[in-house]
Amino acid sequence: MRTKSKKKQFKYMTNLKAFSKERVLAKIKELKQLPFGEVFINCKFNGVDYKLIFLTSECGKDANLMNIIGGWRKKNEIWFACKFEVTVERTTKWFKERLIDAPDRLLFIIKVGNEYIGHVGLFRFDFENGTCEIDNIIRGESGYPGIMNDAIRNMMDWGKAILGLKGYSLKTFLDNERAVRLYEKLGFKEISRIPMIQVEGKDGLEWVEAPEGYDGEINKYDLVMKLF
Ligand SMILES: CC(C)(COP(=O)(O)OP(=O)(O)OC[C@H]1O[C@@H](n2cnc3c(N)ncnc32)[C@H](O)[C@@H]1OP(=O)(O)O)[C@@H](O)C(=O)NCCC(=O)NCCS
Residue 112's domain is classified under what CATH number? Predict the structure, then answer.
């Protein structure tokens, strides 16, 4: 039912006949410069209307929003490669340098009524194959079970319609059972496992890929999944 009207639903459509690196990066850059709230995806899940709102450059000036996003990251830090002290300043720096200034990265915040409940994003485009990774999936608040699944689905539809993406992949820790379950429900399947080791990073211990030939004990894996 959705597919027929899907393309018309999205504002700021481009006529992307073929997936092109230049056009995709220009589009993401353009969207990031717009006022926050202007680019969104209207969604409905279990009879509840909600929005995926594209985070733009000006969000970095909203200390309240930075505080919310930082708080969610802190709460869920065990599921990410590195841990760091989370402050509004630090989140704002991350937001500007790692999200806004990253040409192939974008994030949508999930808003139900007046409440933000999490975010979903895209990162690391493979311009040769027309695919990218699902990134920064965080449920910040409880409620509406199944909405994260629906939000990712809607974002992937948007990516196909607006950016011309043809497929998606992702990485998650193998022991992140909830995340793995969520991605399997969406149709992602395992393609490989990357052995991980913990090293001393700039801000403390962080997980990185084990180097070639590493013969120590491995008890953590990054699961690489692809949508089929
Ligand atoms: C990973 C994460 C986003 C999953 O969130 P979630 O709340 O499980 O996801 P959903 O909102 O899709 O809810 C799924 C649950 O709702 C249930 N559900 C109910 N109705 C549903 C529907 N119509 N469609 C899908 N699921 C539905 C599912 O059965 C599932 O329950 P279960 O876990 O008992 O099987 C969340 O655990 C999280 O933020 N974790 C920390 C950060 C993280 O690990 N991110 C991923 C890094 S790769």
Answer: 3.40.630.30
